[in-house]
Amino acid sequence: MRSTSSTRHSRFGKSVRAVAIAAIGSVPAVLIASSARAANTTAADEWTIGLLALAFGSMLIVLTLLGSRMTQGLRTSLRQRDTAGRQM
Predict the structure, then answer these.
(1) Counting Cβ atoms within 10 Å, is residue 38 exposed (0-12), middle (13-18) or buried (19+)?
(2) Could you give the CA distance from residue 28 to residue 13 in angstroms, rounded to a whole number?
(3) Rounded Cα–Cα distance for residues 5 and 10 (Å)
(4) Could you tell me which residues come within 8 angstroms of residue 32 by beta carbon, excluding any fewer than 6 positions away?
(5) Distance (Å, rounded) from C-alpha 73 to C-alpha 57?
(6) Alpha-carbon distances of 21 from 2, 8, 31, 32, 35, rounded to whole Å
(7) What pTM was computed for the model?
(8) What is the pLDDT of residue 1?
(9) With 33 labelled, which of 24, 52, 67, 88 sits at a CA distance of 20 to 30 A?
């Protein structure tokens, strides 16, 4: 059985990894925002682009965390199935 500190560390590591993926994934949105800023956009346009970049980054974080949880569930299911097949 795992200790709670190792589980907490594992969750923190997954969250940090998800944030890093979101930061890397938001680079195109930042480039678009910087080119729009160079095109003399209004403040409302800049806020809209910023909110879209934030929403995109948040979406990447959620997808990364859900994907890792699904992968973990699939691996557990395959292990249990493999163990049940060996017992027969």
Answers:
(1) exposed
(2) 25
(3) 9
(4) 49
(5) 25
(6) 27, 20, 16, 18, 23
(7) 0.51
(8) 45
(9) 67
